[in-house]
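LOG
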Amino acid sequence: MSMTLFLILCLNGLQYGMLLFLIAAGLTLVFGVMGFINLAHGVQYMVGAYLAFFFLQLTGSFALTVLLSLGSALLIGLLLEFFVFRHLYHRSHLDQVLATFGIIIFLNELAKVLFGPTTLSIAPPELLSGSIQLTETLRYPVYRFVTIFAGLAVAVALFLTVSYTRTGMLIRAGATTPEMVSALGVNIQKLFMIVFGVGAMLAGFAGVIAAPIFAIEPGMGDNLLIVAFVVIIIGGVGSIGGAFMAALLVGLIDTLGRSLATIVLSAVFNPSFANQIGPALASMLIYILMAGILVFRPQGLLPAKGGA
């Protein structure tokens, strides 16, 4: 593997990791604070992408599109919490899974009705459409750099909010001792609404910044939801720092593993077979890592403070 290819794969892995973090951060807070299994969290990523397509067609401004999409994703998350999720907090996990799975089906079908079943795409903003010369043989798109830095900025903002604000203190306490938080007179209903709204907005933001890179289509968030659950298990339920560390780890392992597995198999088998089997084997690496974490460190790499 050449150094140029290695750098490209590392950058792509960081970008993928940032998208995973934006999705997993909200999911780990919802699951950690409330113990609520929200399978519909991944569909918020799809909603963000479709909102970006809609508002860009409407306004023609990417900056305005981001602001309108974030606000709309937050509003949709709050509406789902008010009309659906809050009625499931004290129900069994099976009820939560069935109800949120129904939301996935509903929103995926709604996307087909509103936008059609065909794949859509949007172009990056003209200001960010160029590339940066990293080495003599490597130019990397500016927009992909921006997605990496946007994810890092959100990670820093979340860390500061969760670590140094009163709301963050309540979220951290709720992730470890929710009964005590409720006993102290904290409005748990309001706290849950804030967590759900922020989680939905983060997943929507991931969809917005991913829209110029990936295809926009119904069901685009379903596979990412599975990987996001892997991320929060590896990082530690309820831990923002753990979600960040695990998301980067999973992004790099998945991206680098696909090429490395193909190269290793090519040394033993014919190239055609290696190209077919390599990516499939590489995708198993993150689940093998998750299994190892569950066996040797079930609380995660960086569990929430006060966790087991």
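LOG (cont.) second protein
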Amino acid sequence: MKLWGGRFETEPVEIMEEFNASLSFDRRLYREDIAVSRAHAMMLGKTGIISAEDAKAITKGLKEILTDMDKGKFTFSPSDEDIHTAVERGLGEKIGETAGKLRTGRSRNDQAVTDLRLYVMSDIDQVAMLIADLMAALTDRAESEGGAIMPGYTHMQKAQPITLGHHLMSYVFMLDRDAARFIDCRTRVDILSLGSGALAGTTFPIDRDLVAKELGFSKVSANSLDGVADRDFVLEFMADAAITMTHLSRFAEELILWTSREFGFARMSESFSTGSSIMPQKKNPDAAELVRGKTGRVTGDLMAMLTVMKGLPLAYNKDLQEDKEALFDAADTLKKCLRIMAGVVRTLTFDAARMSKAADDDFITATDLADYLAVKGIPFSAAHTIVGNIVKICVRKNKRLTDVTLEEYKDFSPLFERDVLDVIRVKRSVERRESAGGVAPKQLKSQITAARGLIAARGNDPSPGA
């Protein structure tokens, strides 16, 4: 049953039917579509646009269709162009011509975008919960094993000693920004488009606020053209998804390095690893590699949708049918990757001894030496030069900073005293970095406490201002 066939004398050719149809992917919106239709029918009845009896028959029929679809008993027809067509056809089979009154005062244009808004709000709530779960997994590991000392890197070169907990917590706060972006995005999704009609509103005395309240929207769209044409919320969701995936990819890359034999900082559980068909010894970190790879996929979804939107005149154009597959793919991929990474984190085995050994070389406390001289009154730039010369000599003589004697240190500056030998110890370097947000154990405890509060907010109350 076509919703638009009145002025046509011939049917579209088969390839056009297939090309035009969206049921294969928008059928997942059936719950949202039926919810929107029930709210619309209720409003039509309460405003007297249709009779109360007709409204009751429509809502009853829609409830039965929802039950059928939930149980997989609804039979889709080859003629169903999209989920809206399928629901209206099914309603007609149940209640007859009265089903046609459901279309009063609305268009597929405002129906489709309203369905999508409901779907995205639900996905945002799910994503916020999944992000909170990954944050919790990271925070738990930081609390239980976070005291292990490891090298921190810049330019992939050992730079300064940090702790495992400090490193893991950096991703917790990164993920919290991701959750905040999604929750903020939700405020711009939370707008009822239904009532915009095809583009110009409607002549019927509809009550949009009543429909908004029934569906849980906070407000209604202010302009009917924008109400139909707006897909900013889709772009914003996908942009947030791409940023979150980028963060997951960065962490995945580090896990791939850490679990290599060359680093040996961690071992990935066999539950999240695979082997090789030809090399019996292999244990590959495929979970992390796939997360890293799927980041490009989600970024591609965003680029595709940006390109779809860039040249569209107002209001509705069939191009907008392309919003769903990219959105669904980005959302599905993100949610799966968040679940995978939480599982990976909870099952990792860390090698504290290997990390500690890696942190105890490569002049990793050289900055502490320069700080030591700066405290003694030497300008840091001059202290930097002195320590650089010490390192240069150590490289030439194949010595570490801990191999240099106090007398040798004094050759570079008379300000060096016996306590310098304690300053260059890796553990002391970590303990002394007590600036807010620093790597010292006291600061790690503060970060964990702060994170617990963020996790509770993100995980239990995914709403604006949480």
